[in-house]
From TrEMBL:
CDD domains: AAA, PAS. InterPro entries: AAA+_ATPase, AAA_lid_NorR, P-loop_NTPase, PAS, PAS-like_dom_sf, RNase_R_HTH_12, Sigma_54_int, Sigma_54_int_dom_ATP-bd_1. The keyword Lipoprotein does not apply. Keywords: ATP-binding, Coiled coil, Nucleotide-binding. Residues 336-561 form the Sigma-54 factor interaction domain. Residues 187-214 form a coiled coil. SMART domains: AAA, PAS. It comes from Neobacillus ginsengisoli. This is Transcriptional regulator with PAS, ATPase and Fis domain.
Length: 681
């Protein structure tokens, strides 16, 4: 079959090329195509099977210029090149868009065809020659006539030459008398171009989806709660951390109105309309600071929820750094929780005592916070920038305590450090020394200490050199010192030296109203976002707390470790609560001494902390941490103790680098040891 023939007549050369290319691509295999542009001049005689005009304008502009002999004349209809539709759809909704073409009629027709194509999210304004300013217009669109655009317009989208639409192509196919197979092949070619665009759009959509999933995953790993709301107050981002805080499921809250999800007016008001950058809130007893950021360009608000615990952690790291450089206090009066009138009064008095230079004796039951007060007093004193050194007198043997306190000269005893060692009194010079459990020191150490206090100078063990010292002494005990004086185990002259100022800390049962506050404080510091069931609280309010706040703290720590989900229930109570001072000890092998209790508790505590962080608890790690505590243990000593703990079923030792793990029985035992330690006397 011989090829049909077609002549294309276009207005401009540029249009001619673009349309010739389109026709070649679609019909070139079956139709012979020639083309002319009015710009270049058209032959006097045009003779062909089909004469195809690029547009109405091309037809009316050229029709008298030549003699015409054709079987069929077609005036083509054109539409936006599919590749540009995507660009047009990306113009922000509601924008005013100037449509620039070289002919007013063509401009109007183009606008009409845009609307018909469904590109109606913007408002098209027709360009008129001679009118160079269009108010509020920042974007222009032009089918290849961009040189006509007013120069102030920032963004010009060139949609290129528009191509023949499907109906024009089908009309040509019909006139050429091509068989069905060929005509369907041609329409498939036309459609495949559109499918290609669709594919690109799908690719872009998939990329965007992947990117959004990636961002979701990143947001999911962040330790802070993240919330984003759009201008209508609907939630667009709500990360899992936040879902845990509000006890909701992420999928259920995205796209919901923020006020339906967070039903605390103060919080939603702050997020939506707050003037400050950040604000503190309590959400189900958890202290958080919300930081808000208004993203004006995107019309969204981003709120980050930071746990107060993190702030504590940062502070702790900073304090650790400080301590590495010198010896500093860890706590101030603000760390002592207690709103009960007696506590308030004790804090007021302690602040006054802090400012004097005299020794202070702090008395109170075990775990009432005596050490905490000692720290706070130093921090409030004029010596606050000088060292603060604490020593637990009951944890050391007599000779070790002496050498720790007063130091020794080189060669004093086997194993003594080369060059001798400074004692804590020397190290604390111009600062404060805190002697905890002073009631437990031997008569020998008592007389040594008395001499130091009377003379204001020390002599290292094994040395003759006198070293003047300027140290303020704070002591603490849970023992009845007067009773000890009566039975001759404590020197009265030392007592009067130490007890110049006296502070008595009340036990927890005398200030039960502080229990909820303390619970909240302990949970917040643990970093867990959980709630405590009302009946647990009621139980806590009735319990005697012989180990005071230390016992309360270790009970809550235990419950936080074993509880499931976000609520601490009565099920999580340690089975031994209330029996700490009672007969339960018979369940476990009796510890020989307070030191053994401390050692076992220390080792188990470190293992539990490591396990919680997913780290391996090696002997070396436990040993190195022990150096910073009041139980110093070598890796060999730890090995022996771990063997015993394993034989008792409290730990499981891993091979190689796996480290040791605490068992559930071990956790209960740890709790028991802590409470035992608390009531031990
Ligand atoms: N008022 C309080 N506010 C917050 N935490 C407290 C308070 N009192 C005690 N604690 C916490 O309880 C635990 C025991 O406190 P501390 O060691 O100061 O007690 P203590 O009276 O010195 O005990 P002991 O007589 O056994 O040496 C610590 O973890 C401490 O931080």
């Amino acid at each position: 079959m011989s090829k049909s023939s077609l002549t294309l007549i276009a207005g401009s050369e540029k249009t001619k090329h673009a349309l010739q290319e389109q026709l070649e691509q679609l019909l070139g295999d079956f139709v012979h195509i020639k083309s002319h542009a009015a710009d270049e001049g058209i032959p006097q005689t045009l003779e062909d099977t089909i004469i195809l005009y690029s547009s109405d304008t091309a037809y009316t502009r050229t029709k008298g210029m030549y003699s015409l002999n054709a079987k069929k004349i077609i005036v083509g209809k054109r539409t936006v090149h599919h590749e540009y539709i995507d660009k047009l759809l990306r113009i922000p909704e509601g924008s005013a868009v100037l449509l620039v073409n070289d002919d007013d009629d063509a401009t109007n027709r183009l606008i009409e065809s845009f609307y018909q194509l469904g590109i109606d999210h913007v408002q098209f304004i027709p360009f008129r020659k001679g009118n160079l300013f269009y108010e509020d217009v920042q974007i222009a669109v032009s089918p290849g006539e961009t040189h006509l655009c007013p120069s102030y317009i920032k963004e010009v989208i060139d949609i290129g030459v528009r191509l023949f639409d499907m109906t024009t192509i089908l009309e040509v196919v019909e006139c050429c008398g091509l068989n069905k197979d060929i005509s369907s092949k041609i329409s498939e070619r036309y459609i495949s171009n559109i499918i290609e665009l669709q594919r690109k759009l799908l690719d872009a959509e998939r990329d965007a989806k992947q990117m959004s999933e990636h961002i979701q995953n990143v947001v999911g790993t962040v330790d802070d709660g993240i919330l984003v709301v759009n201008q209508e107050g609907r939630i667009t981002v709500f990360n899992p951390r936040l879902a845990a805080l509000f006890h909701v499921v992420v999928q259920d809250v995205v796209n919901k109105d923020i006020e339906h999800v967070i039903n605390c007016r103060d919080i939603t008001d702050f997020i939506l309309n707050g003037k400050d950058e950040s604000k503190y809130f309590e959400i189900d007893g958890v202290g958080v600071v919300i930081f808000r950021l208004q993203m004006t360009k995107e019309n969204t608000i981003v709120a980050t929820f930071k746990s107060v615990h993190q702030a504590f952690e940062i502070e702790k790291t900073a304090q650790r750094e400080m301590r590495n450089k010198g010896f500093h206090t860890k706590y101030g009066f603000n760390d002592i929780i207690g709103e009960h009138a007696v506590m308030k009064e004790r804090k007021r008095i302690a602040k006054k005592l802090a400012l004097s230079e005299h020794p202070i004796l702090i008395q109170g039951e075990t775990g009432t916070g005596k050490e905490l007060f000692a720290h706070a007093i130093h921090q409030h004193s004029l010596r606050k920038n000088r060292p603060f050194l604490a020593v637990n007198c009951s944890a050391l043997t007599e000779s070790l305590l002496e050498s720790e306190l007063f130091g020794y000269e080189e060669g004093t005893f086997t194993g003594a450090q080369k060059g001798g060692k400074k004692g804590l009194f020397e190290l604390a010079d111009n600062g404060t020394i805190f002697l905890d459990e002073i009631g437990d020191i031997s008569l020998t150490v008592q007389s040594h200490l008395l001499r130091v206090l009377q003379e204001g100078e020390i002599r290292r063990i094994g040395g003759g050199r006198i070293i003047p010292i300027n140290v303020r002494v704070i002591t603490a005990t849970n023992k009845d010192l007067q009773g000890k004086i009566r039975d001759g185990s404590f020197r009265s002259d030392l007592f009067y030296r130490l007890n110049v100022l006296n502070l008595c800390i009340p036990p927890l049962i005398e200030r039960r109203a502080d229990i909820p506050l303390l619970i909240k404080h302990i949970i917040t510091k643990s970093g867990k976002w959980v709630k405590v069931e009302q009946n647990v609280l009621e139980y806590f309010m009735q319990y005697e707390w012989p180990g005071n706040i230390r016992e309360l703290k270790s009970t809550i720590d235990y419950m936080l470790t074993v509880c499931e989900g976000n609520v601490v229930t009565k099920r999580d109570l340690p089975s031994m609560l209330g029996q700490a001072g009672g007969s339960v000890a018979s369940e476990y092998t009796e510890c020989e001494s307070m030191l053994e209790i401390r050692e076992r508790a220390f080792i188990l505590e470190i293992i539990m902390q490591c396990n919680e962080k997913g780290k391996a608890a090696s002997r070396e790690l436990i040993s190195s941490q022990s150096k910073e505590s009041d139980v110093v243990l070598s890796p060999q000593q730890i090995r022996r103790r771990l063997d015993i703990l394993e034989s008792e079923g409290f730990v499981v030792k891993g091979r190689g680098r796996a480290g040791t793990k605490i068992t559930a029985a071990g956790m209960e035992y740890l709790y028991f040891l802590k409470s035992k330690r608390a009531v031990y006397s």
